[in-house]
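Collaboration report, partner site 2.

Our partner group contributed sequences for two proteins of shared interest, and the home lab folded both. The records are reproduced in the order in which they were received, starting with the first partner submission.
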Amino acid sequence: MASKSGNVVVDMAAETQKIKDFLLTHHTEDDDGAKVFPYSLQVSRLADREQVGLYIDLNDVHEYDADLAVSVQQNTRRYHQLFSDATDQLIESALGDRAPPVHDALDAFIFQRVYMEKTQRAQNADGQVVENNDARKKYPPQLLRRHEVYFKSRSSDNVLSVREITAPQVGKLVTLGGIVIRATEVKPMGAVITYTCDTCGCETYQPVNGPSFMPAVNCPSRDCVESKANGRLQMQVRGSKFVKFQELKIQELSEQVPVGSIPRTMTVNVFGENTRLCAPGDQVRISGVFVPLLRSGFRQIAGGLVTEVYLEAHHIENVNNGGENVVDLEEEFTEEEIKIISQDDLYDVLAYSIAPEIYGHTDVKKSLLLALVGGVDKNADGMKIRGSINVLLMGDPGVAKSQLLSYVDRLAVRSQYTTGRGSSGVGLTAAVLKDPVTGEMTLEGGALVLADRGICCIDEFDKMMDSDRTAIHEVMEQQTISIAKAGIMTTLNARVAIIAAANPAFGRYNPKRSIEENVQLPAALLSRFDLLWLIQDKPDREADKKLAEHITYVHREGREPAKEGIQPISMNLFRKYMTVCKRKNPVVDQKLSERLVDTYVELRKEARNNSDSMFTSPRILLGAIRMATALARLRLSDTVNFNDIEEALRLMEAAKVSLRSERDGPAQRIQTPMDQAFAVIRDLYITGGEQPLPVANIMVRCAARAIPEDAVQMCLESYQDNGVFLIDQQKRVIFA
């Protein structure tokens, strides 16, 4: 058989033989130098029914025969059929006289029919000439074939966006990159329909090559035609063949959208072993055949000349936000990477690596780092305690809140970015849509569902409508979305950490007003944030000078200025280390639990005295535990230590200090950092039974209260000079 294309005639029999030679002879070498035949091994596994899919890498085909690889790319469907036929022949040769294994009802059906056909042909061969002695020729190849062939594009092929796939690519193997915004349930699709005549009992087979078909009605057998019995065909589900089918909706990435355009989408049809390989929110690369959708019947008339197109998937690869393969993040660290992550100050280096071009905000960046790592989820015996850390950044305009959110969105392996005015409650949670394939009502996840087990960044949080903002209350604590719409009652997972940015109610923070008047967010929502930072733009000559020098350097050099002793970590290594950290599940021992309890009681007492209870609820304690476990994860430890607890409490205290109003002034109990340090020393002296206090313990406790180290040193020197206490040679404080 030959195929003519232009002036080139292709011998299909020769092409099939070439494919068989490739499958049998292509080999690689293992670490010991021994030859390995990957495709011959796959064929053997297919014959023994140990494997379903035959995966062909076009890199291997190109290495064997470049022309064959080009032919597969240019005429994929035809060569898919040739590869399937060649595999059928190789499987038949591998089986020899052995009967194919019987694993399910369809195997038994095929075995019985082939055996009966062989018996009948053997009986007829004695009295008359039989044109074809092969009993399997009577049945459609799609019915007998129990394997699937898939192609993987060459590594040198360009990854195209949705709008770059156009008419010249029809029928060719292309690679599409984008994000999955919708994935239907996996359902069976008919590949070969079997009918039985109710009059003569003859079986008829109807291959299905599209999304719809017209069922056969009249029996085409010779007995019914000659006797004019008009036998009616009855569908036999047991003898029919079905394949797994799933439909994906792929949307192009934001960086692929031209200015002034909206993102385009494309439908991807997935069959067989490729189903259930991705979920909404995953960034993927899909190799497949770009083909038009053939309509029939009334739909063809109604559609006119307009033809829909879709991608028939052959290979699906999950990638993260940076474009790297997810598998790459699971690889071992190189020696250079191990040296980087083995630094003593890794915590500070990781925090500095978050948006290094933004000056300052060290504690805020540490909070974002803990949100990226997350705490440990507790799901025992129906109890569910979230581990994700929610952070709210509130501050004056121009303090780089949106830049921090944008960087976190790019840095996280799985994330979604949205804004307050551009988001509705349905867009954040889930929408009910009608499935165009089945006509059923289905759910399409919103931003929070797409970011499951990741980060959702919400900018302009204060601009959201109250009705839309209430949609995320359940997500922030229960980590689920409950739906009761259009007859659909279900619960979707939204295990997501929310990082929000907002401006104060009056544009800029007004120190003459209370915290409630400046924030104007409900207490039920504020209590769900583990950390609430207020970033103010206060005039300060030295700070303003350093900030201006930093900004001008970034604009001049196009990169952040080098910080003494700290080199930012690359995004790829950052993601890789975060992936390793999330595997740890550290626990808190009894002694540290007592420290947390005492701190919580003290915070409640202070909140009661200062009428600030809206920010001090029992969720504060859970937030401290989450941050402590996140810090333990950063150390790749299985237990939380004292320093983790102190650092978590220090961050919470620093966030609380940033919220204190300046209008109270002298009325505040603690006025200066030196006064704060002395109050800590006094409390330690009283609770310690008036024993000498090690200076190291004072430093740790002051750091937990966000008191600068230089202020503590000044306090010790000042009060020692005044004769309030003495510091001995063992660095202990002894009160006079």
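Second partner submission, folded after the first:
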Amino acid sequence: MSQRISHSLLDPVLTLPMKRWYPWLPLPRQLPPEAIVLTGHGLAIMAAVGFAFSTQYWWGGLLIALGVAGNHIADVFDGTHARATGQCRNGGELLDHFFDPLSFAYWLAGLAVSCHQLEMGIAAVICLFATAVLTNIKAKMIGQFTLNSFGPTEFKSLLVLYGGAMAWLATGSAPVAWLTAERVATGFLAVLLAVGVVQLVVGLVLS
């Protein structure tokens, strides 16, 4: 197993304190950690549906925020539960890491649908999986699985904030008429794509 090295900015203030809640959670010891993984994936799908409808209905943004936050919470506790109950299995870890990029792909696809920018959505998904492949090949070669400063925790936190903003914008409460939900979604997708491409190129160069 590759050594995990995290440069995450938010993990120390969000993820690590959250793990301390585990002893107080009413999780049966016999519950397989894969059940937590599948629950998190179901929440990711819920968030993807929210993305797709977020420019039309206020509840779309709410589904984004709840689904992404729930997915992150499940992602935090599946491994913690596995280690605490002695249920660490290669298959469970494989399932967890297999679902992670899929969840991100669902969200990007839903975002693209919401603003009718399928070309940008396809490019963003390709960039996402290229980054995932690069990260895993690098981990295999050097024995280190490295998370950047802007990693999964930061990305999910940004999406939760985006969901809240879209829930507000979809009600027509924007202070200026041109600030429509669809324009915000298009701009957000464009920024994510640009950042993803830059991060991928930098990762290739530094590898």
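Feedback sent to the partner group on the second submission included the following. Residues 178 and 184 are 10 Å apart (CA to CA). The mean pLDDT is 89.
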